[in-house]
Amino acid sequence: MRVLALAGRRLLSSVPTLLLILVGIFLLLQLAPGDAVDALIAQTGGGADAASAAAMRAEMGLDLSVPAQLANYMWRLVRLDLGFSSIYGKPVSTVIFERLPATLLLMLAALSFAFFFGLVLGVLAARRVNGWPDTLISTLGLIFYATPSFWFGLMAIVLFSVHLQWLPAGGFEEIGSGFTGLRRTLDIATHLVLPTLTLGLIFLAIYLRIMRASMLEVLSLDFVRTARAKGLDETRVVVRHVLRNALLPMVTLIGLQAGTMLGGSVVVESVFSLPGLGRLAYESVVQRDLNTLLGIVFVSALLVICVNFVVDLLYARLDPRITP
Amino acid sequence: MKAFLRGYLRSPPAMIGLLLLLAIVAMAISADWLFPRDPLALAGRPLQWPQGNPRFPLGTDNSGRDIAAQIFHGARISLLIGVVATAIAILVGIVVGALAGYHGGWVDDALMRLTEAFQTLPNFLLLLVLVAVFGSDLSTVTIAIGAVSWPAPARLTRAEFLTLRNREFVQACRTLGMSDARIIFREILPNALPPIIVYASVVMAVAILLESALAFLRLSDPNVASWGNLIGLGRDVLRVQWYVSAIPGLAILLTVLAVSLVGQGLNDALNPRLRKR
Amino acid sequence: MSPVLAIQGLTVALPAGADRPHALDRVSLDLNAGEILCVVGESGSGKSMTAGAVMRLLPPGVAITGGSVIFEGQDLATADEATMRHLRGARIAMVFQEPMTALNPLRRIGDQIGEMFRIHTALSATEIAARVLDLLAEVHIPEPAQAARAYPHELSGGQRQRAMIAMALALDPKVLIADEPTTALDVTTQAQILHLIKDLQRRKGTAVLFITHDFGVVAEIADRVAVMQHGMVVEEGPAAQVLNAPRHEYTRSLIAAVPPLTARAPRPVSAEPILVMRDVRKTYRTGGFLGRGGRVTHAVRGVTLTLPKGATLGIVGESGSGKSTLARCLVRLIEPEGGSVSLGGLELTGLTRAQMRRQAHRIQMVFQDPYGSLNPRRRAGELVAQGPMIHGTPRAEALRRAKELFELVGLDPASTERFPHEFSGGQRQRIGLARALALEPEVLVADEPVSALDVSVQAQVLRLLAELRERLGLSLVFITHDLRVAAQVCDLVAVMKDGEVVEHGPVARVFEAPEHPYTQALLASVPGRDFARKN
Question: Can you give the residue range of the structural domain that contains C345?
Answer without folding.
Answer: 273-283+294-534
